[in-house]
What does this fold into?
Amino acid sequence: MNLIRINKWLYEVPRSFRSDMRVPARIFMSDQMVDKVLVDHSLEQIVNVTTLPGIQKFALAMPDIHEGYGFPIGGVAAMAIDEGGVISPGGIGYDINCGVRLLASNLPAIDLKKRLKDLAAQIYAAVPSGVGRGGPIVLDNKKMNEVLKHGARAMLKQGIGTQSDLEHCEELGCYEGADPSAVSDRARERGNDQLGTLGSGNHFLEIQVVDKIFDEKAASAFGLQEGCATVMIHCGSRGLGHQICTDYVSNFLKKLGQWDIKLADRELACAPFKSPEGQAYFAAMKAAANFAWANRHTIAHNAREVWRRVLGPSENLSLVYDVAHNIGKLESHSIDGQVKQLIVHRKGATRAFGPGAQGIPADYQHIGQPVLIPGTMGTASYVLVGTKNGMAEAFGSSCHGAGRAMSRMKAKKTIQGSQLRQDLLDQGILVFSDSNRGLAEEAPIAYKDIEEVVEVTQEAGLARRVARLRPLAVIKGD
Amino acid sequence: MQKQRYEQLPSTSELKLRVFGSDLPDLFENALFAFFDVQNLELGKPVSQRLVQLTGIDHEHLLVELLSEALYLSHKHKEAYLRMRFKVFSGKGLSAELIGSPIVKVSGEEIKAVTHHGVLIHQKNGKFETDLLLDI
It folds into this structure.
């Protein structure tokens, strides 16, 4: 692999490395990270991304890059829709709009201590989690169409959540242009009992404390106070999103010949963005994104109800922000002095728009968009803020988490889930999960160092630290 | 000696399997078996036969289509399909009955999707094999 060091935080694989590359690949990483990144096939995957039609400037890898399928996890690629640019479901991910929602309180965490166990236990009961687990909300076709079309707004109409929840959500909780008819019956069946559920794997709900503030002005704008409690939710579009990706990858593979597209990897299956097929996928992707926003909106509402019931009716959780890290967004960016319409794929990467950018809440315009970076159980999560530099360097994109460093197989062999549970308890972190196996797989040691990932993100100018959040209680499925 | 039907391989974030078969239909059936066996399921006695009719651009695509179909049917009917009976099997299509057992309990990973990543059916030492990467 021909890796050129651009600067202390940025490496490049030049176009000359392989004849089918349309643009270079750039990887945001420190010198210390290079050996770890070379361990898996993530660099080969980001080079494969450079071969996609219409790709602009660079295929980008964020500091939490690791091997995925097709795109690496932590991959960003932007295709010009007026230059034959393609849209690739694999470049968005199977869990469409997997993302993070952060809610903040005015309650000092120290006041929470005696009631934490009861609070977490009641949230665990109120928010279904776990393998294939459905929830109490079952959507018939009509209700499903409402959710797919209107996202979190459909839930607000039913009295779930608040208007301000929409105002601080990416796309105001609804990506306009979703088409429920582009969503298959199978996808609907897989999602019809999953609204308001967390799912399994690395999805979670955490009660946290704002451990340290790095940027007082931004923290104040976001409603974050040092020592006060927060709630973070990480989940996505559940089985519905997975089925949509499965459906369209299969469809596109059957049609590649008619578009004369050659793939370096089948999981890069794509369609010209402006083709009927590309537009159908985009409309279905928006529908799945809306489902995910409705999902996190509902989970937040249920958590908030428990919060007030346990802690008192005057206690509130207000939404800081909700942002996706598996999504395709139609955005305008300047490329060599020319403004172009791009379909920006972020797979395991978070939008990180700087101050003044269109599409971020009015009360955050002067600061920039919150960037929510969940850590692992037992380690910190971070709130960052987007920068103007990041808009130029990375289409306004940032990392999405710590990134896995160890396979699940190895994690299960290395770590005892029951011991991990005790170790976390010894650190003062309560864990609510039925599965020790699931805990072992998600152990902190299985992930990269979040501090290192955030440092590179900041030093590379993609986003900068606002606050560090420390977990107090973790709720997750198996 | 019992033939090896599959093995689990390390993967950073997903579930990776290597599946073996004496011929292509055997490979497909072993892939189906592996898909459900790796989920550590407690099952009841076989009770159903689900007919599937699938097409693909080649064998690799067809294999992913089969497992994706099995995933969907498993969710819909709360069943696992460890065995199948082919009616038709060709380069780009198959018709088969999947023998379904009700799922009593799941102790392993939840498989959310079957990816095309690394699926390349080839012969090695007289056996057919391919890798599968499953999204969990």
